[in-house]
């Protein structure tokens, strides 16, 4: 079994790291540069930086902030928010990002995935999917979860893979910020459906939730924000716990 990855997520709004519940009630939790450096020092495998209001506000991701964060860390770094064309991704990669994440723009223009994969390589392209369960079906949303689309979660994930996505970052809006565990049933189904790695997001509340997401959910990486930002779980302690449960992680 390949080593499982622990990935802190820094949601950025107005230059500050923020956190909410079910994508609502957003609160500031600290400076993104300081947090990025802390998590890299603690042994995070990667970081994800999402400019959560760039698409809503119709602007590009803060390239300057990406440069500042990149100078402070030595681990892989994914950046998303407001990326709608190749030159946006190129600017971020030149600023120090290792991968780019596209979400709303990919839903609106699926060809963007093909273009990104062809131009930069699949290993640079993460397709983020925010989805919410309506009745019995998981529906993809855009604009930070504000708008439901006509796309179904699993068919869209498969299409993204077919178009050249190197990874899928799936966030369950129903689980986000609740600290009640990940959407393991849906993650397992997605894992069986796809050949590319899946990053699980939404719902981490304790160390056992990470055990569950790697075993029951079959995820390749576990992403979390609040439990790390509020110092509820330290990354070294989490990795020690996972190793004690026979889950391979990088030391």
Structural key phrases:
251 residues, alpha/beta, TIM Barrel, eight-stranded parallel β-barrel, 10 helices, 12 strands, 28% strand
Model description:
The chain has 251 residues and is of the alpha/beta class. The protein has a single domain, classed as TIM Barrel, CATH 3.20.20. The protein has helices spanning 32-42, 63-72, 86-95, 104-108, 111-120, 153-163, 184-193, 207-215, 226-229, 235-244; strands at residues 5-13, 16-21, 24-30, 47-51, 77-80, 99-102, 125-134, 137-142, 147-152, 167-172, 198-201, 221-224. The longest helix is centred in the first third of the chain and has 11 residues, at 32-42. It is globular and about 45 Å long. The two termini are 15 Å apart. The mean pLDDT is 91.
Which helices and strands occur, and which strands form pairs?
Elements: E1 5-13, E2 16-21, E3 24-30, H1 32-42, E4 47-51, H2 63-72, E5 77-80, H3 86-95, E6 99-102, H4 104-108, H5 111-120, E7 125-134, E8 137-142, E9 147-152, H6 153-163, E10 167-172, H7 184-193, E11 198-201, H8 207-215, E12 221-224, H9 226-229, H10 235-244
Parallel strand pairs: 1-4, 1-12, 4-5, 5-6, 6-7, 7-10, 10-11, 11-12
Antiparallel strand pairs: 1-2, 2-3, 7-8, 8-9
Helix pairs in contact: 1-2
